């Protein structure tokens, strides 16, 4: 069994083990559980080592100025202190940030694009402390109207090549193209760049004449450019 030796008044107490199995030994607030001899669990005044915390959210893609987000530090454990960090800093004073009584839940009212994070929660008890992995919100906000830049708007059939570029300052968006108000059906003469920002038509034909628009979208919003008209001359 395990014994605590304190014969030397100067030396620190030590634990010795014999071949006799025991379930636990308790002395002066320190307990060693040996129910699983290969991996003992240390406790201090009934406190166990905390698991690594994780952050859960009721909404990972909230709409700016509309949605409220609730972040929770999991799991819930007794006699644990919870603390939150944003961008590696303590939480700022804000009327839009609310903490639960035990600090385990952080509520963000009417999120803005500045609330993306990352967020980290920290747990601590007398035995251990831990931090979660960073958690980042994808705050969706209205996208600005894009515009189209054309290499030429009046071209000659079978001779010219047209480059149409969708211009936008927004990030985290997808780009699509429309022709005469409908989704553009690509032909073998059309090519889209990576990210779909540039449409190339080579060579142009009379069937390519018409109205072009590009549309930018995120998970919550979308916006279309003004119409750009392409004229194709036939010789």
From TrEMBL:
It holds the Pfam family Ig_3. This is Carcinoembryonic antigen-related cell adhesion molecule 1. InterPro entries: CEA_cell_adhesion, Ig-like_dom, Ig-like_dom_sf, Ig-like_fold, Ig_sub, Ig_sub2. One of its GO terms (biological process) is regulation of immune system process. Residues 1-22 have a biased composition (Polar residues). Belongs to the immunoglobulin superfamily. CEA family. It comes from Camelus dromedarius. Residues 1-24 are annotated as: Disordered. One of its GO terms (molecular function) is protein tyrosine kinase binding. The lineage of its organism: Eukaryota, Metazoa, Chordata, Craniata, Vertebrata. PROSITE patterns: IG_LIKE. Residues 51-138, 146-231 form the Ig-like domain. GO terms for cellular component: cell surface; plasma membrane. It comes from the Eukaryota. Keywords: Glycoprotein, Immunoglobulin domain, Signal. The keyword Signal applies.
